[in-house]
Design brief:
Elements lengths: L3 H4 L7 H10 L5 E3 H8 L3 H12 L6 H17 L8 H4 L2 E3 H18 L15 H16 L8 H15 L3 H36 L2
Length: about 210
């Protein structure tokens, strides 16, 4: 395997500038997940995770992006250096205008974050911490996939923060992302519990 440190190291281009260029080059109609991932591939897991977390904010897409992020989490947990996805996920297409809309909204926050992000606490960006982060990403992706209103928002935000920490090798941002992940998982648990209890009540009232 390659050195994990080199696989997560960012290139010289700022994430906000890279994202701006990607949004400007979107196809007119639809864009596949594979096409978007190719732009971030050289940044390994951090870039692909950022893309998928942002796409997860689009209604109706979170089931596919969540599945892809679950794969990322498991691959990080297993010590993979680069992400790989099955054809079903890679060839799934999203409307370009939706991607552009979400991308520009995220871009403003990413630009603000970059003023405070820098490489530090590098142990949190390398194994074994990276493997634990993979487990957290997997857990968050399960919440993203819940077919419940607004359940995908808190984990998607936590995943965006984590992806920025991985992209720029900033352990402090990763810690913030982990705290956001704890909140997101708690919120997801509460939403799922309420939905389950509501479903039980419905069947109790519906039964003769």
């Amino acid at each position: 395997m390659n050195n994990p440190e080199s696989s997560t190291a960012p290139n010289n281009e700022q994430t906000s500038k890279l994202l701006t260029r990607i949004l400007a080059e979107l196809p007119a109609d639809k864009v596949s997940i594979d096409q978007l991932m190719a732009q971030f591939q050289r940044r390994s897991f951090g870039g692909v995770l950022l893309l998928l977390a942002a796409v997860s904010l689009i209604p109706g897409v979170s089931i596919f992006s969540g599945l892809a992020m679950a794969i990322i989490g498991l691959q990080l947990l297993a010590g993979f250096n680069t992400p790989a996805f099955p054809s079903l996920i890679k060839h799934y297409k999203v409307k370009s205008d939706l991607v552009a809309n979400i991308g520009h909204k995220c871009l403003r926050h990413i630009s603000n974050m970059e003023h405070y992000i820098k490489p530090r606490y590098l142990r949190l960006t390398l194994p074994p911490a990276l493997n634990i982060i993979g487990l957290i990403i997997f857990s968050l992706s399960l919440v993203v996939m819940l077919p419940l209103p607004f359940s995908n928002l808190p984990p998607a935000i936590a995943l965006i923060i984590l992806s920025m920490g991985l992209l720029e090798r900033d352990g402090a941002v990763i810690v913030v992302g982990l705290l956001a992940a704890i909140i997101a998982l708690a919120v997801g648990y509460i939403i799922a519990l309420i939905a389950f209890e509501s479903l039980l009540l419905f069947f109790n009232y519906a039964s003769p």
